[in-house]
Structures are given as structure tokens and as C-alpha cells.
What we know:
The chain has 77 residues and is mostly beta strands.
Amino acid sequence: MSWNSRIEITHVVEKTTVEYLEALDEELKNIKGYVEAEPISVEKKELKSSTDTDCSYIHQEIKKGLGNLAEMTVDSD
């Protein structure tokens, strides 16, 4: 995977009410005239490889750059 093969992809994601405000929203629904708010759409950008769609930009303390995240288990017996 080469750094030169990277492409930027934009996603639209919906942000919902923060979890601790959900209880308040439930209480507000019982008030006369309450109108529920619409979700807000925001753009989310990420770097991907144009040659490997599973490859994306990793920004961790021990690794930065294009690569694949993987979890592995090794049996040493």
C-alpha cells in the first residue's frame, strides 16, 4: 500500500442527541406544543486507498499511515 494510492472519501452521517439528554427529551415529549428536533447531517471525511478499499488511514500512537486494522490470536503451543 502506497501513500500515493490514497483517496479522500466523504460520508454524510447523522448526529443524534447525546445519551444523557435522552431522558430530558422523553420528558419534553409530554409537554404540550413540543416539536421533536430533526437529526443534523454532517460530512465525515476519511482517507482511503484507491487500490485497496479495505485500507484506510490509521492514526494511533504506535502506527500512523495507510494500513489495515486487524485483530489476531496466536496459539503458541
